[in-house]
Amino acid sequence: MEGNKVRRFLFLLSILVILFASWSYIGKPADKASFQTAFNHLDSQMTTIKENPDVSAAVDKLSSGLDQLLGQLDKTLDPPRQEQQQSDLEQIEKPSLATPTEDVFTVYNIGLGDSKDMVEKQVGAAKRSSYNEYGVEWHAYHKDYQNFMMAAYDENNKVAGLYSNQDLIASTKGIKRGSSKESVLGKLGEPLSKIRKGMVYYQFEKDRDYEMYLIDGSYVTVFFDKHQKNTVTSIQIISEKLEQNRKGFYTQESEQLKQGFEYQLFDVTNAARVNHQLPVLSWDNHVKETARKHSDDMADNNYFNHTNQEGQSPFDRMQEDEVVFNVAGENLASGQFSSIFAHEGLMNSLGHRENILKKDYEYLGVGVAFDDKSKPYYTENFYTN
């Protein structure tokens, strides 16, 4: 009997060692090694029609007058966009954040266990509800993407998950958006280095832009912005029970989850743009299909690249799908188990961050697909016409 216990222990230990080695190897940033990562693939590309030197001078001369004319045409021909631009100018008051009394962290003065009725009495009805990796829905609350947060509820309509990438974080530890990573580590102590799913431990990559803690029965993930001196940029709080709903590192693919990841990546992208005083992007179903097809192609054929196996660039694919653009860009990510983790990784990669925060963009379509191991591939297509 003792021999069986020893063999079982050694077997589990070997699994942990293998997973640690695998995660650490393939989790390194692609620009620091000769291989592509499987858990943290990122890439971006941009182009404009002004790249043609023959038309560049003419475009520059006409740009001022055209911008003014097109601005007037937008107001006439695209009323929804007009309303959105007007609302962007209206600054919504940030709520007064109270120090939590029952939780270490709250978002918008909301903590785990609060009722859905209480949440919506405080922040209004959700703007969108979409399926997530925990088998429940993220409910997105905001006013034109200001005061943005997402909440997930359990079977009793009690808060079981929270996320925000805006200045809505309060803590008994004095941690808030903009706090330094050093202060977070000093106040919260040693973060988790792995998480258990069934009989398998998944080791977090060493070069990560977040730290995860198990605090009073909830998994708290604090994300940091490497381009803002490693300060807190967002937080995700998931109850221990809800975390256990996610049986593996990846969630089994479904059409619901594809659509959920697509809308969630769109929403958190707009919330990030609002943080930088940029206009929000409009969802575009047309280019979303272009993005979805590229994610499908990468997942089905096991590659990760802006150029597909037929030699088409993102802009070739957009033109083939009759998407009319004069400025366009594409972000790719692969292997992050949710849109939140994908977005946070993209924001910490300079080229992708520039796409997300490019002032000129007006439209965004997001396409998500899964390979045969349920690993997600994310494609973001931005453009202006």
From TrEMBL:
InterPro entries cross-referenced by the UniProt entry: CAP_assoc (IPR029410), CAP_dom (IPR014044), CAP_sf (IPR035940)
SUPFAM superfamilies the UniProt entry points to: PR-1-like (SSF55797)
Biological processes, Gene Ontology terms: proteolysis
Record's keyword terms, sorted: Hydrolase, Protease
CAP-associated domain mapped to chain residues: 112-248
Domain SCP intervals: 267-379
Region (Disordered) location: 76-95
One Gene Ontology term of the molecular function aspect: peptidase activity
Signal peptide boundaries: none
Name recorded for this polypeptide: Serine protease
